[in-house]
Amino acid sequence: MMNRKTILAAVLAAVSLDTAAQRISAKQEVIDCGSVMYETPVTAKFELRNKGSELTIDTVRTSCDCVVAEYPKGTIAKGDNFTVEITFDARQMGHFYKEAAIYSNASDKPFYLTMKGVVVDKLADYSGVYDYTLGSVRTDKNNIEFDDVNLGETPVEKIHIINSGSESVTPVVMHLPNYISATVSPETIVPGRTGVATFTLNSTKLRSYGLTQSSVYLGMFPGDKVSDDKEISVSAVLLPEFRNMSETQRRNAPVMKLSTETLDLGSFEDKDDKSGTIIIENQGRSRLTISSMQMFTTGLKVRLNKSRLDPGESAKLKITAYRKQLKNARSKPRVLMITNDPNKSKVVIHVNVK
Hints:
The protein has 354 residues and is mainly beta.
């Protein structure tokens, strides 16, 4: 038979396991409220879940008197969702970062929630045009282009958003490749208000020089489904490295000359495709190498008869545009070439066709 010490140890272990099983989780522990008006209260609504045994919230303490918290006063059953609302009375200009600590029987330590943003005296909305529909919001563009990127740089691009619907949305950028990070501010956009999606490129994670393309999607809430009407095309052009070339190397480098960098094909009229030719010459002192040739959009086909040109040699580049495919293109028809000419490492040929 077990002695009293063994029984007591077993009881304490059971209590310890029960306490450890009491857990709170949050969809978002930090909510970005974006820009808020001076002397106008702003509320952050945190959605939480009781992942342990029965939960009782003793109190919610805030970081200052200007923040008030609303929380459930009764018992929260195992597996139930609940909401904590934190309201900040914005009486001071500038950035704010406010915390609320949930004290409960779930743990000896509090569970922290944070709301942040910036208090302004005037809401300066984006003055451009929201021409594109992504899901249930409108945006000023549906594609992101990182041009002329050198290895090691982290350029930033933005998409402006307006919630033209009747319900609040919590936009999230989905299916991000490892070389792109994205945030949306504010995290919740109420009807009639605007926000900004910020995209940052980590150029060290791009695999090769030239054009890298991918698609991401703007969901209306975390876990939203991916669909074509939420697609944002992303492209990045990583340039070859020539910064360490000596003066002698530059004098003896290849020099590329094109007959034109804008190919005017006129109108399709009753034709399905139109073609044109560009002459490429090497006017330098060493071999010219065209290491990459890519299209920014569908609807184009290229044919180059020679990619390595000795000094004095020339090549023909034939570009064909296809009417049906270009109708669905997200960006203007262009051809990208990456070369070893230090002054023309990147060449973009614009194709005009109606």
